[in-house]
Amino acid sequence: MSEGASGTRSLPIGSIALWIVRVALAAEFLYSGYLLFAGGHTEQTFAEIGLGQWLRYVTGVLEVGGAVGLLIPRLGGPAALLLAGIMVGASVTELFILTDGGPVLPLLLLIACATLAWFLQDQTRALLGIEPPLDDDEDY
Question: Smaller CB count within 10 Å for the chain: N or C?
Answer without folding.
Answer: C
